[in-house]
Specification:
13 strands, about 290 residues, alpha+beta, 10 helices
Length: about 290
Amino acid sequence: MNNMQDEVIRGMAAGNEVRFFAAYTRGVAEEARKRHELSPVAAAALGRTLTAGTMMGAMCKNDTDVLTLQIKGDGPIGGITVTAKADASVKGLVQNPDVILPARADGHLDVGSAVGRGMLRVIRDAGLKDPYVGQTELVTGEIAEDLTYYFASSEQIPTSVGLGVLMHPDNYVKHAGGFIIQLMPFASDMTVRWLEEVLEGVHSVTEYFDDGYTLDEFVYALLGRDAAIEKRMPAAFHCDCSRSRVEKVLISIGRNDLEDMIREGKPVNLHCDFCNTDYTFTVDELKCIVAKL
């Protein structure tokens, strides 16, 4: 087990012709694996999407913006939903957490087959009347390639996305992380060719971390020592559900329905799918809520 902290960094490289985001997210992915009791391939799929979420959340312009990634494929995993905030906090879930598939021929987890073909949606909610929704087809189901295609087709930004989750044989997340590298509109042809060569040499994000690279060293290995890190922020799996928020949901149901629940004489259980947490309210607690009304 390593001592690296989960983090997202962003900055510029190649004379400010390249913008980059990079993340180390072992803790995020492992927290999701434990909360949802994920199989290895489900942990890899959700971990990759959560990693992308931390970086795409950090792209948000306002602190109150919320970004949601929705992946709906025809593979056995069903669907993946991740919600991210501008502070690089994320939460997420998979539809079928216990999917088991044989490894690929190269020994890696077969995330592409688990996800399958379908649609990728990116929803950016900036608090306006209607959120921005971008949608593209899933190209491979491997998630990184699908997001690369999304940026090119939906946002018209030349982008390369790399994501990785390395599972330990004992079924916990050993390493997780990724990068999003984007060409600025004024990038020269020389910079484009240089970046293409750089990316051709990247076969596995997690290999760097498994070899002992820190997140900063990972960025320098990719983009050179002149890469300028401009901001860093901690990344975390965080669900903003709470008992008080759930109580507000019960209040919104209304007095009549609450009184019906009380007459049934049974505790009421409300479940948060994002963090797999149950909130149970006894009959006496329901009576207290009605009294407040």
